[in-house]
Structure prediction request, 119 residues.
Amino acid sequence: GFALGLYFGYGIDTGPVILVPGLRLTGFFTDPNVYVGMPTFKLVLPIDRFAPFVEGGVGLGHVTAADNDPSKSGAALMGGGGFMLYFRHVAFGAEATYQVITGTSFKGFGIGPILAIGF
Prediction:
């Protein structure tokens, strides 16, 4: 299987750190499929063009029905971190996240690239 996620956030520059409230939508296309939507919060420590970050979120998750197992929903919890490299209005980076959905057996660990576009 594979996972696909979208993240929308707005950075608030406080000087030494950037606070980024946002929204994460993720689909894990496995057997069974898993869908997660959650508000998130990211704390970024910019060092020139390099910006490491930590993030977390709490929202809703849904695991579709599998063989002899009904679909289930629960609270989705996420924690992670990574880094970004900024170039004007575009940034590239990588992140690692860990997600669980309470009341289900779902536990997801992801590592992936990031492409960010600023307006």
